[in-house]
Amino acid sequence: MRPSNRALDEMRSIEIETNVTRHAEGSCLIKVGDTHVLCTASVDERVPPFIKGSGLGWVTAEYGMLPRATHTRMRREAKNGQSGRTQEIQRLIGRSLRAGVDRVAMGERQITVDCDVIQADGGTRCASITGGWVALSLAVQKLMKAGDIKTNPLISPVSAVSCGIYAGQPVLDLDYPEDSEAGVDGNFVMTGDAGLIEIQMSAEGSIFSRTQMDQLLDLAIKGSAELTKAQLAAVGA
């Protein structure tokens, strides 16, 4: 029995509210159960120096947790004093979102996706990627409406979901009580047609078999399909 009483292959509730900030070109508040993340996408007509003049666009991301997103207050992280975890997560978000973008069609501009965790209950990086794509999509829609981009550069929705072995059973979409005690924990980043972008998996005290890994992948494909459906509904596609 899962602490939340969900079935083994049951996602938490998914809510995506769009256009939640006034100034960002794209924004959403994504709620996956009790994990809530504010995602904004900001357009800059400049690109980093290493791709300047290439004609290619760039998508990057920043991630952070508000001081009281968890049970106890954390200190704010200055940009130059970010933890290794924070840096790893924002790099993951950036490269995940870039995998779903035609950077030629995007043109030589940068879109920065900021993901700020308001409330954490497990799966914050997955919710950030999922909500980050929605914010990115809305920003692209605005660019296309203005005529700044002629062809939609978004190849596919990109979403992420966690799966793991909890109490000896493969489960979908771990919340914090499960994540903190899981024998195996994995994050699966996928495109809307179940293409794999990245898998992060590790054993936490017990090894896992090929069969179990396949079971977790099957769960991730199911969860990703539900997330993709919610994403497309949010952006009006």
Architecture overview:
The mean pLDDT is 96. Strands 1-2-3-5-4 form a five-stranded mixed beta sheet. The chain has a four-stranded antiparallel beta sheet with strand order 7-6-8-9, sandwiched between helices. The chain is 30% helix and 29% strand. The chain starts with 13 loop residues before the first strand and ends with a helix. A hairpin with a 2-residue loop joins β2 and β3 (35-44). The chain has a single domain, classed as GHMP Kinase, N-terminal domain (Ribosomal Protein S5, domain 2), CATH 3.30.230. The protein has helices spanning 84-98, 103-106, 124-145, 176-179, 210-234, and strands at residues 14-18, 26-32, 35-44, 58-65, 110-119, 158-166, 169-172, 184-191, 196-203.
Summarize the structure.
This protein is of the alpha+beta class.
Question: What key attributes describe this structure?
Answer:
Ribosomal Protein S5, domain 2; five-stranded mixed beta sheet; alpha+beta; 9 strands; four-stranded antiparallel beta sheet; single chain; 5 helices; 237 residues
What's the rounded overall pLDDT mean?
A: 96
Any idea what the CATH superfamily is called? GHMP Kinase, N-terminal domain
CATH class: Alpha Beta
- What form results from the Cα inertia axes? globular
Any low-confidence stretches, pLDDT <50, length ≥5?
none
